[in-house]
Design goal:
The chain contains one helix and six strands, in the order βββββαβ. The protein is mostly beta strands. A four-stranded antiparallel β-sheet has the order 5-4-3-6. β3 and β4 form a beta hairpin. The longest helix is centred in the last third of the chain and has 7 residues. The chain is globular, with a radius of gyration of 12 Å.
Length: 73
Amino acid sequence: MVSEEGANTFPCWLATISETQHRMTLYLKLNQPANHPEDYHLQAEVFKDKWAELKNGFFPWKIQINPLKIIVF
């Protein structure tokens, strides 16, 4: 996908989060808001200082996916 933000950039919404001592796991839904906490496409790990920057941002967030950094399970 190519948009004005660049290749592989998508709008996303936060479905839910999970917290550990040093990181936050963000569960993200692409292209539309999530309907419930299990309605997500991607899981992203961020350090808590990054979460402090992100959590007050307006939706949709923009996420750019680097194909070389995707791990498929």
